[in-house]
Amino acid sequence: MAKPLRPRRSPARRRLHRLRLRLTAAYTLITVVGLACLSWLVIRTDDRARLDAEYDEMRRRASVAASLVYYEDGRIRLDGLDDEATSGTPQVLVLEARPGGDPVIVFRGRTAQFAVPAGALRAAAISAMDDEGPVRAEARDRAGEAVHVLAVPFYHDATDEVAGAAVAVGDPERGAAEHRSLVLSLVVGAGALTALAALTGHVLSARSMRPAWEALEQQERLLADAAHELRTPVAVMRGSVEVAAGAPGGLEAHLPRIRRAADRMADVVENLLTRGRLEAAVDVVRAEPLRLDQLVEEVCAELPEGGHGLESRWEESVVEADAALVRVAVRNLLDNAVRHGRGPCAPDRAELLVTVRGPEVWVADRGPGVDPARLPELMERFGSPGGGTGIGLSLVRRIAEAHRGSLTVRARPGGGAEFVLRLAPARSRRERRRGAGRTLTIRS
Q: Which of 62, 91, 230, 372 has the largest CB neighbor count within 10 A?
């Protein structure tokens, strides 16, 4: 059995999807670069601190050893170098200068961790004696492993001249385990933060692009509605023109049908444009005092003659609303009643009752009626069971909500349905002065 083909994404959707991936990648890359720089700085600082701590300990031990060396009767005395000062690490050695020759090792600490060549120790001792101060150096033992060397000069008690140097040999691996643990923690932590940043960036990019997705969906819905709604009047006009071209009576006999199709197309275009503005939130409702009864009377007078009977009941009513939008809403309610309000007793004629009472407009018919629970279904796109698209009633509801009102339906006594459009009532003069210049922005 063949697998059903997945619907292909439109180019605009593919571009938005790629843009979301690029935003996620950019957010992740910025996080990676920032964490890498921060980790490198922490690792380097810790390594320098570890090296400085090692050299400080070497300087302390070498200085203590140099201070315990003394001369008596012209001979060097090393009995002050006890185990506490010379055992353990760093390793301590004492080199004494010889006239006309290189310094000679006269003492080694009991802990001999590193087999450092004598030449490296003599070079460090000579540098310390020449500079008459501590000297740091890097060397390698006989196994080729790197070691730290620090030499501190000591002086002859009788002549106060430099007589030699105490040399400390340190282990570069001291504290390396803690350093490697820090590096591992930073790598694991940076990886976890990078993954979290990628997930967060993906979510944030989706939220930031939500208006673009909604605008694209609104555009696609508008195009789909336009194609669906305009197909019928265009087909009627084309068929009438083709029939009229070959008919003996010419075009005059088909002009009424073409005119009705053109009027229907104009209504469809106006509804679609109004709905597009409402969904895109680009329209502004200027709430002004409006004689609702007069506006409804004008809309009723614009209904085409024939096919319906109209009874009206007007009460003087003032509301605060946008006249253009309310006109569209009332026209859609009347059009819906004319199309679906034919009862079994008069299948070719819709009996309408239009009532204006306070801020409400009632449009009643003698059709099959509507279950109030099915009102949301009737306003779904292409979901109306009566052959419509549901766009007209959906637009009425949006206009009502934009005016702080509502659209409801109820069963009409004796059969039929009553649609009730409720708008915001007019405010008092004091409230109008307080809210002068106020506008309502339509939000879908």
A: 62
At 265, the amino acid letter reads M
The answer to whether the beta carbons of residues 154 and 66 sit under 8 Å apart is yes
H/E element holding 72? strand 70-72
pTM, two decimals, is 0.48
Among 86, 152, 144, 88, CA closest to 116: 144
What's the chain's Rg over C-alpha atoms? 47
Residue 90: cis peptide before it, omega within 30 degrees of 0? yes
Mean pLDDT of the 131-144 span: 85
Task: Return the sign of the alpha-carbon dihedral for residues 311, 313, 314, 317.
Answer: negative
* Mean pLDDT across the chain: 78
Q: What gap in Å lies between CA 385 and CA 372, rounded to an integer?
A: 14
> Residue 262 CB: number of other CB atoms within 10 A?
13
The number of angstroms, rounded, from the C-alpha of 323 to the middle of its chain's C-alpha atoms is 39
Tell me the mean pLDDT in the region 227-241: 65
CA 135 to chain centre: 57
What pLDDT score does 399 carry?
A: 84
CB-count burial class (<10 Å; 0-12, 13-18, 19+) for 112: exposed
* The pLDDT value given to residue 421: 92
Residue that has been written with the tokens 């030699």 in this structure: 164
Structure tokens at 182: 């820090």
Weakest mean pLDDT among 20-29, 266-275, 426-435: 426-435
Residue pair 390/396 in contact (Cβ under 8 Å)? The answer is no
